[in-house]
User: Fold this.
Amino acid sequence: MKIVLLSLIALAFASCEEGAKRTFLFPKIDINAGENGEEIVAELRNLPLEPSQGDLRLFVDELILGPQTPRLRPLFSLGTSIKFCFTSEKEGKNVLFVGLSEDAISQNGSCAEIQLGIQLFERNIRENFKNIEEIVLFIGDSVVNEYQN
Assistant:
């Protein structure tokens, strides 16, 4: 009986370790941030190795959902959804196109300032997907950035 229990526990830990480790960066909730800006905190997550929607789309989904750690702010307002997320090759570069709903620009106080949210979105993608050379982010029907590596 003990051997079976230990085997199940070992299997559970092994399955938890399987997956892609990804780093998510979110601003810390700090009412005393002052002139130095907001502190950025890294959150490590294990994501499935081969998600049905693909690594990049799962990462973007998780990023838009926001932090799992208390006292961290989401990048965009709650209720923000992804309208599209795909990569394409443009002039020999891997380009990521992401469209967010207009909810992303409504500032409700619990999320990062919109410019910081956009900057951290780009930084999260760059640090986790080195093959992405350009990021084009839409909110509603407007391009809000064009990061080029």
User: Anything to note?
Assistant: Helices lie at 2-17, 55-65, 114-128.
